[in-house]
Structure formats: structure tokens, C-alpha cells
Amino acid sequence: MNLFFGLVSAMLVGATPILLAAIGGTFTYYAGIFNIAMEGMMLVGAFCGVLGSFFLHSWLLGICCAIAGALVMAGIFVLFAVRLHTDEFLTGIALNLFAVGLTTFLLRDIFHVKGAFTDAGIRAIPALRLPLIDSIPILGKLLSGYNLIVYVAILGTGLAAFVIFRTRFGLRLRSAGYNAACLNSSGVPASTIRICSLIICGVYCGLAGAYLSLGSVRLFAENMSAGRGWISLAAVILVSGNPWGIAIISLLFGFFDGLTVFLQGSQIPTQFTAMIPYIATLVSLYFYSIRKVRRS
Amino acid sequence: MRKQALSGILGVLAALLIGALVLLLQGFNPVVTYAALLQYSLFSTSGFAATLTRSVPLVLTGLSASIAFASGPANLGQPGQLIMGALGATLVGLFVRLPTGLLVPLCILASLAGGALWSGFAALLKRVFAMDEFIVTLMLNFVADYFALWVITYPLFDTSASSPMTRPISMAAWLPDVGGVNASVLVMVLATFICWLLMSWGRSGYEWRMTGQNALFARIGGCKVDANYVRVMLITGALAGLAGGLMIMGGPHRFVKGLGANYAWDGIMIAVVANNGILATFLYGLLFSMLQQGAIGMELVTAVPSEFIDVLQAIIVLVVVAGRVSLNMVFDKLATRRKLREESKE
Predict the structure, then answer these.
(1) Does the ipTM exceed 0.90?
(2) How close are the terminal C-alpha atoms of chain B, in Å?
(3) In a mutagenesis test of the A interface, which of B311, B312, B325, B332 is the best target, namely the one with the most A β-carbons within 10 Å?
(4) What is the tens place of the pLDDT at every residue in A140-157?
């Protein structure tokens, strides 16, 4: 039973950053932007989270800084891809490289360390005990006591599904991607909607970054996003942007990620277990492609 | 061509100015910093030689990305292909006993094969299962990274070493230094020349570029688009693999943990700033190599951390790419105005 709870917990830990980044990515996906900068936004978010939490002595301000950092990245994306009409793919690649360079540089410049920075002064985001459910025997253990951001991610998914499919903004968002000219001619500039979608993506990626550096652990390491932005991009593409589909895919990846932790003590070398999330992405891409080919 | 050179030079200068601003904000002297950068990368004999040697993986992975992007396939797998190529060269260098004249070419072939194997796998998945190479090559990067780490931690681990690495490869496979410059530079220049011939003069290069610009047009025009796709994937994988092999043969002579990590994404970055041109890739490869080499001297002379160069590189990419688009618009406007004036004269 304890193994089961451990696996569920590890699954949620692995799923949360991917879920948050992918939900952010789904907004830009619907708005018709080929946004691959989630990786960079998440990384800058993770760094700024540590920065804020360490110097301002508050995890809440840390989260705010993380979101602000990711928003700056989103702002650069807006400036280049939407305003200056630079290729979105190229802008995304350049931004991801910029994020790696900037965070390593600042890590060295501000904290005077190479590789990773950890300190007792970094305030972590606390776990949340749900008031009523917590006292129920098994259900309480299953549902309560996770990190605050985990619940934020679940709420964020529901919110995204509501906003995209049930509100006027969501309709405009989807039409910006479906037929931008049509949206323009109806008096709503598609570029404004796209800028909004990038800002929302920045907020979600900032939260994902904050979870990476202040939630599951309490440190910043060089390139600590480790391809999660790319996996979340794959998740968005695999389910064509549906938030609930993204949630399921993220949980699946979270499960494999959790499996990695569990298999660490076994005979299998850690190098092979560490490959699991990436191979899982390939396998799910295989099923997606097969289904797509059969349909057409 | 001239337009591109102009926008490139202007972009790099603008990026250097922004970099100088960043330095000023941090309280460093930009003039001293840039002077140290140049001193240690171009204006000293050993620095210049090191710059050339360092440019080998940058130019080769850059060529790999350039040819792929220009021809259509979104091969983002250079990091993984580089590692597999390096692994191929290491295996041959460790276990094959031959004289230098035979072992060096064999190692190079093994590195080409290693890279092509990894990109070929992605091409196979695309052709058979229609899996998008964009995600596949990305994910294979991570798989290759962990696989190589396993190989150097367990089967090929050098028991006398403290961190994961293999034993040194056979001396016969070492590429010598010629006047301070490693012989791998010659291989790199040769490879660049062949790529240039292939893309600018060959029929296949023309077909590839057409496919990259408009696959439907190329197909209707009679190009074998699918076969070309596989060829491009194999060749670009082999180029990235060659980068890895030459790094082993010219540099540490063994597979060390973290090999290629610093060069991994640089190739893609260089292809992006170079707008997928072969000559431009070569030149930007040299520029980025100069910056990276100079960074070491910069850190020695001034207190600026060498990581500043990572930021500067990304700024160069953003400014050059955005500048190209804006400058093209300016050029178009000027051309239209000139045309209008000529028409009004008549």
C-alpha cells in the first residue's frame, strides 16, 4: 500500500511541471503559434523563483518572480515573433538558448557558483493539507498533502478547459489559430489574441519553473528543465491541444518519471531508467502517428 | 548575398553593442573585456590555433543543421548524433589495431556511420510510421546521452579514472597538431568544401533545396522526395557524427563524461543565424568559436564570468535573425521607391 501511495506521489511530482507547461503551450497552440520556447520560459522561471525566494525570504514572492521571469521571456517572444515577424521556430530556438546562457551566467554572476545553487535560505513552496479530506483514512492520504503547485496545476487545467471552450476569449483564441484573416475582419486583431496567449503561456511556464526549483526540490541547477519543455510540446501535439488529454498524457509521463525514481535501487543501471520518459514520448508518438495514418 | 553579409555584420555589431550595455550594467568595462576576448582568440598564436581547433565541432554540427533545415527535414538531433559518432570513433580507436594511415580513416568512417545510424533510425521511424522527426530526433538526443553515459560508466570504464570515461584510444588514431593547429581542422575544411559543392553545384543539392522550399513543387517536378529525405537525414547525421569523432581523435583522445555538451545546440544556433547557407555557416562557426575561445582569456583578464559569452551568442542569434527580416523590408521599400522614381521620370 505504501508503495502505491509512493508511486502516486512520484507520478504527480513528475507530471506537474509537464502539465503546467503543456497547458501554457496549448493556449499558444490554439492561437496558431508554433511555440517551442516553453523550455526556456520554464528554465528562467525556475531561476527567478530561486532568486526571489532567496533574496525576498518568501516562497510566494518567489513564485511571483518566477512568473515575472517567464513573462519577460514571453515578452521577448512577442517582440520578435509577433511584432518583428521573425520565424517562430527560430525565435523559439534562440530563446531556449538564451535561457540556458542567461541562467548559467546569472548563476555565476549573482550566486558565484557553477553547476547548482542550493541554500538553506531558499524558502520552499509548502505542501497543502486539504481541510476536510485530510481526515478521511485512505482518500486523505491519496488526495491531500501534496505541494501547493500540484493543486494549482489541477485548477489551472480546469480553468484552461473552461476558458478555451466556454468563453468569448476562448472562441477568439481558437479562431486566431483556425482562420486569422476571418478574426481580423470581424474587428478583433489576431495579433492581440496571440500576444494574450503568449502571456498566459508565460504565467503557466513560470509556475512550472517555480515548481521545479522551489516545489519538488529547493535548488537551481544549470539546465534543470532537462527537456521537460520539449516533452510538454510533444504532449500538446499528441492530443491536438485538448487540456484534459494533456492532463492524461502528463500523468502518464509522470508515472514513467516516478518509475525512474523507483527503479533506482534495482539492478537496472540508472542510465537506462533515466531514458524512460523520453522513450515513453517516442512510444506515444508512435501510437499517435499510426492512428493518424489509418484515419487518412 | 551582399544583403545577407550586410545584415549579418550589422546584426553582430548591434549584438556586441547590446552585450557592452549588459557589461556596463554589471559594472564591467566593455572595452577592456572585448579587447581581452580578441587578444586570447585571434591576436596570439596559441589562441588563434585553439580557435581554429575549437571551430571543428561548431562548423560541422552547423553544416549538419544547415543542410537539414535547407532541405526540409527538421533534424534537431545533432547533439545525439555527435555523441553516437564519437562513440563509433572511440570503439574503433580502442579495439582495432592498425597503422595510422589505415586507422585514422577507419575511425572517421566509424564516426560518420555512428551519426548516420542515429539519424537513420529517426528517418526510418518517419518513413515507416510517419513519426515526426522533429520530436523523434529531440528525444533520441536524450537517449543517446544516457546510453553513452552507461557505456563509459560500465562496459568501457577506465578503472584508473575517478569519473566516467573510457581508456585512451590507440595512439595511431590520434590526429596530430600541425603548427599548433589540429589536423581535424583540415578534415573540417574539406567537409565544408564538399558540402558547398554538393549544395551549390550538384543536382542533388538543387533537388534538396527545392524540396526544402516547396515539397509539393519538387515532387511534381519529378524529385524523389522520399528517397531524398532519407539521404539528407543520413548525410546530416554523418556530419554531426564526424564532429564527434574528430573531437575524440583531435582532443582528449578518449570519451569523457559530458563530451559535446557545450557544442550540442551550438550547431543549430549557427545554422539559424547563417540562414542555412554553407559559407555563412562556416564563417559564423569561426565567429562563435572565437567568442568561446576568447571567453577563457576574458575571464582571466577581467572578472567577467565566461558564461557571459552564452548570453552574447543568444543575443547575436536574436538580433541577426530579427534584423534580417527588418532589413529585408527596408531594402524592399528602397527598391520600390527607386522603381517608382524611375517610372515617374519616364
Answers:
(1) no
(2) 30
(3) B311
(4) 777 877 889 999 999 999
